[in-house]
Design goal:
Oligomer: single chain
Distance between the termini: 55 Å
Strand content: 15-25%
CATH topology of the largest domain: Rossmann fold
Number of helices: 11
Strand order of the largest sheet: 2-1-3-4-5-11
Radius of gyration: 27 Å
CATH architecture of the largest domain: 3-Layer(aba) Sandwich
Structural class: alpha/beta
CATH superfamily of the largest domain: Response regulator
Low-confidence stretches: 1-45
Number of domains: 2
CATH class of the largest domain: Alpha Beta
Largest sheet: 6 strands, parallel
Shape: elongated
Number of strands: 12
Mean pLDDT: 87
């Protein structure tokens, strides 16, 4: 027997109190066998070094990214991949993402999946790729896009186009007075904004445009940063400058909920139609309640699963994913227009995320 610090115990002078040597030998043998079994089990459970993957999120304050993380954990488990995770403290926290990139590469990650918070992370990504790490952006493109090997995301221009076409059919010959709430200069915001305007049939909003289009029909632009309270404040400001707004585009459904509150407070709840993008469960329920006319549903879990599939392929074959991979989008509404390919609220609730 040994003390906890590993030093041999001093033999007792009274031999009659000492355990027989065969018992001691048996104990040592059993202990050694148990340690060997534990070591083998640990090595069996540990993923090979080329199957370490890092997932770096914008933030964990958004149910979209929480869903993505949960799906990634499940996908990693079934593919024998060791998953490292990190997130910014807030949307736009680039330093936390830079730190995560560097620490995960040091930990042996061979694939990094990242929802980029801004171009400040570009140098860290380039350095990681220079060391043989495959880096894939999820949800939104980097600026420029070729900073990473590939992008796994909703086609955000198509998502915007989809709700724009729906609004165009609903408005028929009525001239829209549009508020665009929640837009910014980020690639996702630009794509959704311009796609929506193109779906409405307004000129100057091509997929190649890197800035926000503002045709005459757009009477107000506000930035919610995807936040409900900011969306309410932005819409309230728009109503003060343009009280005749009859159509509101929102970058996501929390923003749409805030916009609805502002319209209610102003007594305009029935005067303006709201369309949105996301497909989270609360947002789909808002479609069912008539708060949002239609939303374009995207699938964060699929982004994570595609990312882990790409990591698995890279580990097995050395082949990297490149280019853009569309992870899907569907229009959700209860008021279908002729020719649209929408899904019902019931279908949307069966496929939504975020509780």
């Amino acid at each position: 027997m040994r003390k906890k610090n590993g030093a041999p115990r001093r033999p007792d002078s009274n031999v009659s109190k000492t355990k027989p040597r065969w018992i001691l030998a048996a104990c040592i043998a059993i202990t050694a066998a148990a340690l060997l079994m534990a070591l083998v089990w640990t090595n069996f459970m540990r993923a090979p070094s080329n199957r370490i993957v890092g997932l770096i999120l914008k933030t964990e304050q958004n149910p979209f990214f929480v869903t993505m993380k949960s799906a990634a954990i499940d996908a990693a488990r079934t593919r024998n991949i060791q998953l490292l995770t990190a997130a910014g403290r807030y949307d736009g926290d680039t330093q936390a993402q830079i730190d995560a990139i560097e620490s995960m590469v040091k930990a042996g990650a061979k694939t990094l999946l990242i929802t980029p918070n801004g171009s400040a992370i570009n140098d860290a990504i380039r350095k990681a790729r220079g060391e043989g790490v495959m880096v894939l952006a999820l949800d939104g493109a980097t600026n420029p896009p070729d900073v990473v090997d590939g992008l796994l995301a909703t086609n955000n221009y198509e998502a915007g186009f989809m709700i724009g076409q729906y609004a165009k059919a609903r408005f028929s010959n009525k001239r829209p007075q549009i508020a665009m709430i929640g837009t910014d200069a980020h690639a996702v915001g630009v794509a959704r904004h311009n796609g929506f305007l193109a779906g409405l049939g307004l000129p100057g909003a091509s997929p190649a445009l890197a800035s926000l289009a503002t045709p005459p029909e757009v009477v107000c632009v506000g930035n919610s940063l995807g936040d409900r309270a900011r969306g309410q404040a932005a819409m309230a400001q728009c109503l003060r400058s343009a009280p005749d707004i009859n159509l509101v585009y929102t970058i996501n459904e929390p923003t749409a909920a805030g916009v609805h509150e502002a319209l209610e407070s102003a007594g305009n709840a029935n005067d303006a139609m709201i369309v949105s993008i996301d497909g989270g469960c609360p947002g789909v329920r808002d479609v069912g309640a008539g708060i949002i006319a239609a939303t374009a549903q995207q699938y964060p879990a699929m982004m994570a699963v595609y990312g882990l599939d790409a990591a698995d392929t890279y580990a097995r074959t050395g082949r990297k994913v490149t280019g853009n991979t569309d992870t899907g989008v569907n229009l959700i509404t209860e008021k279908r227009e002729p020719g649209d390919k929408s899904m019902t609220v019931a279908w949307g609730l069966a496929n939504c995320w975020g509780g």
